[in-house]
Amino acid sequence: MAKQYETVIGLEVHVELATKTKIFCGCSTAFGGAPNTHTCPVCTGMPGSLPVLNKQVAEYAMAVGLALNCKINQYCKFDRKNYFYPDNPQNYQISQLYLPICINGSVEIETAGGKKKVGIHEIHMEEDAGKLVHDEWADCSLVDYNRSGVPLIEIVSEPDMRSADEVIAYLEKLRTTIQYLGASDCKLNEGSMRADVNLSVREAGASKYGTRTEMKNLNSFKAIARAIEGERERQIEVLEDGGEVIQETRRWDDNKEYSYAMRFKEDAQDYRYFPDPDLTPIVISDEWIRQIKDRQPEFQEEKAKRYKEEYDIPEYDISIITASKKMADLFEETVALCPNPKKVSNWLMGETMRLLKEQEMEPEDIIFTPEQLAKLIEMTETGRINSTVAKEVFEKMFKENIDVEKFVEDNSLGTVNDEGALRETIEKIVADNPQSVADYQAGKKKAIGFLVGQTMKAMQGKADPGMVNKILQELLQ
Question: What are phi and psi of 379, to 5 degrees?
Fold first, then answer.
């Protein structure tokens, strides 16, 4: 009988924090910017420059730790991780090995088999490295230190996950929690959330873990899921062929759907860690922890529960809307202006989700305001524009955040409620389509749909459908 294998997965998730300045200096953390313009002697590792900790970094790290049920280490400190690489200007990275800021947490995820707890081993603060840009035309590598010193937290899970689905559920939970805290935008495509996957396989029922590999270069949930499946199959194949899995770091190529070895996996001693002599330990008081706790927001679960009681909308809508803080804020602010939760939810669940998918955007990228969405709903409800025009206006608003009222006025998109003009148009259409009239009168009630369509076309979509139907019914009797 063929052997059954179990996959064992743990993650190291790096999250870039949403501070305005870097972890140890006053340089900007803004994404983009011309190469090497967000730099100073500290983040380019100049001799004699001294780091000073950005207090906001410690506060974000604690806020994330508390949200993930961690214990806060009230005495923690920074260490130097020594390695030599061109994007690492000091030849060491300031991180936390011995006393990280948060330890022993957990998050609950929904899996196919029900709820499951994933342990959080630790969360530590560290600085990001620079970025190498490979110029194939000039056949050289250039280095950009804008990212050097951008503050990161690394969230290290226990090896508690067993499938790609569990990993994605865990990452989505982390992302939602961190976005609700405002600690990071967690955009995988911009690298502000990055996951390294540690994966091993073992025979089902075995108690000892297999040899793990670490996979890097994963910048989307889809790539992570594919990488997990690909690496699982590769390791099983190696074992089935009588080989041994080697502990190494591998790079996932999403285009080829294959991972290849980068280097043997280093252990902590390879980095010659020692306490950073330039930074004093951080002593965290009970009072400071209480301040952070008091500032924690209403998270997704609490929000979902409140929505169920406060707004009469389906549970599915609630789960989608509260999955993104941006979407939840947009929903609540629009409802405050236009007290019709179901209509607001319909626009977010329908047209908004459709356009986000079509444009390959995240809810965080939405630019239209609650004021404009409320105005659009109000104009549709009062019949100032019909539903066809509303969708057209919404698409324009989604792409350009226009002033809805002005756009409708400037483009003469308001509903035509002039009964005289409408009746004249409909009489002509009825006269021009005797067959449809005969079909309707012979009992084929659907024939009226064609006549409504012709009227809307003649009125450039601006007629009031209710009025069109009413006049047609009268004329066809």
Answer: -65, -35
Q: Are 57 and 102 within 8 A, CB to CB?
A: no
Could you count the other beta carbons within 10 Å of the beta carbon of residue 219? 17
Tokens read off for 42: 């500290």
In angstroms, the CA 416 to CA 476 distance is 21
H-run or E-run covering 447 = helix 447-458
Q: Locate 73 and state its tokens.
A: 């280490």
- What residues are paired with 135 via a beta bridge? 140
C-alpha dihedral sign at 414, 420, 421, 426: positive
CA–CA dist 50, 52 (Å, integer): 7
Q: Are 190 and 31 in contact (CB under 8 A)?
A: yes
Is residue 476 a contact partner of residue 441, using CB atoms and an 8 Å limit?
yes
Alpha-carbon distance of 293 to 193, in angstroms, equals 24
CA distance 195 to 107: 17
> In whole angstroms, what is the distance from residue 402 CA to residue 413 CA?
14
| Sole residue written with tokens 């910017």 | 33
Distance CA 396, CA 407 (A): 9
Say which amino acid occupies 47: P
Q: What is the pLDDT of residues 361-398, one digit of tens each?
A: 889 899 999 999 999 999 999 888 888 889 999 999 99
Tell whether the model's pLDDT for residue 355 goes beyond 80: yes
Phi then psi for 71, rounded to 5 degrees?
Answer: -90, 135
Q: What's the rounded Cα separation, in Å, for the pair 95 and 238?
A: 35
> CA-to-CA distance for 400 and 411, rounded, in angstroms?
16
For residue 123 the two structure tokens come to 């969360």
Cβ(239)–Cβ(201) below 8 Å: yes
H or E, element range at 344: helix 341-347
Mean pLDDT of the chain: 90
DSSP secondary structure code for residue 465 in this structure: H
CA atoms within 13 A of residue 358's CA, in its CB half-sphere:
9
- Give which of 16, 11, 126, 120 is closest to 71, Cα–Cα: 120
Query: Residue 129 pLDDT > 80, yes or no?
Result: yes
Q: Are 454 and 431 in contact (CB under 8 A)?
A: no
Summarised one tens digit per residue, pLDDT across range 205-237 is: 888 999 999 998 788 899 999 999 999 999 999
- 157 close to 10: Cβ distance less than 8 angstroms: yes
CB-based contact 401:368 (threshold 8 Å): yes
Distance CA 257, CA 346 (A): 38
Query: Within 10 Å of residue 38's Cβ, how many Cβ atoms?
Result: 24
Q: Find the angle CA(175)-CA(176)-CA(177) to the nearest 5 degrees.
A: 90
Q: How confident is the model at residue 450 (pLDDT cuts 50, 70, 90)?
A: confident
Q: Distance (Å, rounded) from C-alpha 158 to C-alpha 289?
A: 25
